[in-house]
Amino acid sequence: MTDCIFCRIVQGQAPARILYQDEDVTAFHDIHPGSPVHILIVPNRHIVGAAQVEPEDEAVLGKLFTVARLVAEEFGVAEWYRLVVNNGRSAGQSVDHLHMHLLGGRRFHWPPG
Ligand code: AMP
After folding, report:
1. How many helices (H) and strands (E) does the chain have?
2. Interval 60-84: pLDDT, tens
3. What is the distance between the alpha carbons of residues 2 and 13, in angstroms, rounded to a whole number?
4. Which atom of ligand 1 is nearest to the CA of 38?
5. Strands (E), 1-113
6. Ligand 1 centroid from CA 44, angstroms
7. pTM for this model (two decimals)
8. C-alpha span between 19 and 39 (Å, rounded)
């Protein structure tokens, strides 16, 4: 989708600090980090959010976790980190392209706010 900022990042049409990219998944630094390590991992295909996933997305969505593990190791936060997927405005979703937040480098509390 041309009006989706994450689609534009995936396609190299908008600037981002990309850390990883393959045919299915792209990972890049969050522009407003909420922790010392804050990386977004997205499916290259436009999926609006968790509420729109389909069975055919399962392999790509599983890959988000594999890439998260690799990135966490690369950034030295593999001992503990938090993975977050917000779905819907009231849950904090502000970009309508499914994304996994990888947050690390500080301690986290539960439940989240
Ligand atoms: P969410 O609020 O869960 O939808 O997360 C969206 C995240 O995308 C936020 O943490 C934003 O800081 C981040 N974000 C928005 N635009 C960009 C961008 N152009 N490059 C990198 N991160 C972005």
Report:
1. 2, 5
2. 999 999 999 999 999 999 999 999 9
3. 9
4. 10
5. 18-21, 25-29, 37-43, 82-84, 100-104
6. 15
7. 0.98
8. 9
